[in-house]
Structures
1.
Amino acid sequence: MFIYKAGVVGAGAMGAGIAQVISFSGLPVVLKDTDQERVDKGIGMIRKVYQGRVDKGKMTASEMDQKMKLVMGTTSYDDFKDCDLVIEAVFENMKVKHQVFQELEKVLPETAIMASNTSALSISQIASAVKKSDKVIGIHFFNPAPVMKLVEVIPGLQTSTETVDDAVAFVESLRKMPVRVKECAGFLVNRLLLPYLNEAAYAFQEGSAPADEIDKAMRAFGMPMGPFALLDMLGLDVCADVSMILYDSFGPRMKAAEILGEMHKNNRLGVKNGIGFYVYDESKTGDLKPTVDAIQAKTGIKGTPFSPERLVFQMINEAAFCLEENVASPSDIDLAMLAGTGYPQDKGGPLHTADAIGIDVVVEKLKEFSKQLGPRFWPAPILKRMVSANYLGQKTKRGFFNY
Ligand SMILES: NC(=O)c1ccc[n+]([C@@H]2O[C@H](COP(=O)([O-])OP(=O)(O)OC[C@H]3O[C@@H](n4cnc5c(N)ncnc54)[C@H](O)[C@@H]3O)[C@@H](O)[C@H]2O)c1
């Protein structure tokens, strides 16, 4: 199916970014929000992205004008009536998303694809609100959409293969990198990233090391930013919500570190309100020590050792669980983590890291962590099966990949 015109519902940070990406590919795009002020703000964000390209000499002012002409702002669903594909990027709330999909179904052509950019809600549940649920799919961009190459494409239970193929082709036409992901809580990237961030939070609340030292160690490992700087950037409220969704789906191994809930409760949301693990607004202060002391008194756990492996092995183990559940192929898992999180390129992704370390060593280390730090480290069954079949990684020339 050829997409001649696309639409985006929600002109916030993500919606505006996605509309910019679509217009940049040369396709007309309708951008809707609830009132004209929000629409104008979204269009202003798009203009800013293009202006940045003009300032850097990457495009001329007249090319920018041509691209901006492809963007049409609206407050009415009627303007979607000739769209072949619409991406919803409204608030992360199931009720609001259901309303939007029902409105879309009323005006869109029967053949149109209805996509959601949700970070963590179920695509199948979103689709349950409409009749043409075979046309509903997750097309999950990363923030900022104009910069990040990776896009997760997530079919729900009812999505047709035709819709999946069309969505993948559409994402490719935007010059982005689509990765097909079987639906699960957190999809692929957030499902692997959150346990890594959560482990950093455990290490912090257990007094293993201060936040800035943990950040420094992970940057030395090759991550573009440390886990606490990232938690603050993502927003502690958003992280608490996603953690809850992951815990609800996967149970105790994804139990959020107490400190994450405390940060949310104490309104330390991160960059967005000036204070999180770090202070961004000098008028805000607050020592985290009493909170940490209270957590340690409650859990009785303190002084556990810190190592970068502690965080990275959480990611590796969850990647193995994903592989076992056919959430994505080994190469797509690694590719998604390189493109979606900035996992160090030279290490090739978490599964390549495991192959380099040796799967037998990974299993032994996970067992040790499991005894020392808690059962959340229990090795994914596939890892033990690999060891028993001599799939040890690079040293036996076969592991998650062949060498
Ligand atoms: N921010 C991120 O890092 C990120 C990354 C990936 C995915 N997402 C997901 O993208 C979606 C949007 O996130 P965001 O950060 O852009 O949120 P945002 O709050 O910046 O923007 C949401 C916009 O949707 C508008 N809106 C709400 N109801 C609407 C309706 N009925 N019709 C039209 N517009 C409506 C709001 O007015 C607002 O402008 C969420 O589902 C979020 O989980 C966010």
Note: The chain has three domains: 6-180, 189-299, 308-396.
2.
Amino acid sequence: MKTVFVVGAGPAGMFAARKVALAGFNAVLFNRDVKPGGLAEYGIYPLKDKMKFGLRKQFAQILDLPNVYYFGNVKIGNGYDLTIADLDAMRPSAVIYTCGAQGAHELGLPGEHSKGVYAAKDFVYHYNQLPPYASQDFSTGRRIGIIGIGNVAIDIARWLLQDSPSRNTEEVTIIARRGPVEIKFDKKEIGYVIRHIVPEELTAELDRVRERCARVDEDVSPEAIFAEHFPMLNEEDFTSIPPRLSFRFLSSPTAVIASPDGRIAQLEVGDNDLVLRPDGSTKPVPNGQKAVLEIDTLIFAIGDMHDEQLGLPMGPNGYATQADPDHPDEPVFQVWDPIHSCALAGRFVAGWARRASTGLVGIARHDGELGAEQAIEYLQSQPEGKTLSPEEIFDSLEGRGLHPVTKADLSLLGAAEQQEAEKHHLNYFKYSDNQSMFEAIERERSAVASSRA
Ligand SMILES: Cc1cc2nc3c(=O)[nH]c(=O)nc-3n(C[C@H](O)[C@H](O)[C@H](O)COP(=O)(O)OP(=O)(O)OC[C@H]3O[C@@H](n4cnc5c(N)ncnc54)[C@H](O)[C@@H]3O)c2cc1C
């Protein structure tokens, strides 16, 4: 049977595997994390229970398909568990890379590597209990700056303002290089934290940038901006609650100032003017004014980038693909080899691995399915495969000293977590380190074996 390897079991990979399996081929998932789900499990806000439960159910149904195989706790890439060459040596008929965007942008700022400075994804992985981030130090102080003004920034602000167990937040400041007109978060997301905004403070900040925005014809009067992005602030009975959520527009970080213990103590920002581009969009340009903000924790929520260590050829926007010049706007899934100027036969990228940090789960799902369609089309012209069988793959992984987690293991883990949830009267329980998951799987396996004996 022809077999497609799918690298990464987030929404893109899971729905790609489903499509491949329903077309009658084997789909073999390799996933870095023990559990499937990617950012749907370890990124989406912990309290969005309904969405998370719904997605977990769909992922479980996909894993139930008899021709879908799963190997969790296996990371692909140079210097990781298996290289791409190791995968290719197992002779897959095609490979779809759906491993998301695991790298972080670095701005090259002085002090950027100080303690207390985090990439949003790592921070989000931490509070969503993904090993090993769950047990690493992501301590926060009282005044936290978040660079970026999209939904991820608001999710993190929500955690810090309302749900972080440390409960020491006094103020979260969202810092954006452009103006209020270019706010990227949705009304629904800001709705979760709007009570932390002090309307007079936001008005003062809008006044501070008003003249600079007016030069590019942007109306940032409180009337316009409240109506467009913060309608609740206009409600008569609106009252603010601590801790505070504030904004600083038209500012870019220029240096992290660390204290003698190496932890961020302040943030220097440079103010920006806006210039109009020919297409009507604006570009922030430093105007030479600097300010120092009293910030003791900094989180960069400026989008993710691809992990170069995976080993796929890189292009200007991540893993290399080549647009068809006749259809430049059509999505391209096939990986391109820029050195030999040719497409890589049977190798595809989809989801955030194709376009980093773009869109919601539904978009990643759709992208995974489109990538799978291309793989399926490619398979039609290919001879029967000689791929290692799932049993041989398992043995080969174990032979390398790896600890692959199978579909059967995931069922045992699910049962163990369900019992923990019931014991502690929780909606859901999840282990936050791999060792505890392995032990729970073994305990459950022994319990099942002895109940059968
Ligand atoms: C903070 C945050 C909040 C979000 N909230 C929402 C929301 O509320 N609603 C919504 O619809 N969308 C939300 N999203 C977006 C959604 O999570 C993404 O659209 C979606 O998860 C992307 O799917 P993906 O499969 O492309 O990548 P990912 O979800 O990142 O999955 C990648 C998978 O690949 C695996 N992997 C990574 N590297 C390797 C490797 N080297 N080898 C093997 N496996 C690897 C990972 O373990 C993971 O399972 C949010 C995103 C973030 C960052």
Note: The domain at 106-302 is CATH 3.50.50.60 (FAD/NAD(P)-binding domain).
